[in-house]
Amino acid sequence: MSRIGLMPIPLPDGVTIDVSKSNHVSVKGPKGELGLQVDPDITMEQQDGDLVVSRPTEQKRHKAMHGLYRSLINNMVEGVTEGYKKELEVIGVGYRAEVNNGILELALGFSHPIYFLPPEGIEITAQSARGQNARVTIEGIDKQLVGQVAAKIRGLRPPEPYKGKGIRYTDEYVRRKAGKTAAR
Question: Model pTM?
Fold first, then answer.
């Protein structure tokens, strides 16, 4: 039994959901609009200010899609009302991050700077104070896109285990290794 799929999706004030005949769901809210093509077997209906997602049979495939599409639509509703945010820390001597004209410029110890152009719908800000690690904030309404952009930026210089230098999430813990000791 899909317990997640059975929960109704509460619709806050200012959020409207339209379901077309081809099962395309579009969610409009104060922060923007998102769309998703849902499997034709899954049905959706609005009841008492909630959206209820249901499946036709108890097949394993239908149970899996039931919970999946309920979660995706709930993430869309949350995205258009509150939005999503990920924070990264740039740690290392000489490592910098700044945003110029919407383009993220990173100095990560390579012989050249790295320029990262965010996709449409993503807003990137960078703060750096002298003597402190730079922080990069990624914001948007699409949860999957925010996470993917954060992972791409982190992948430019992942944290290394010896000194801890690199780009990491602010809540990420990097296990440190001891390194070599002098032979006597």
Answer: 0.89
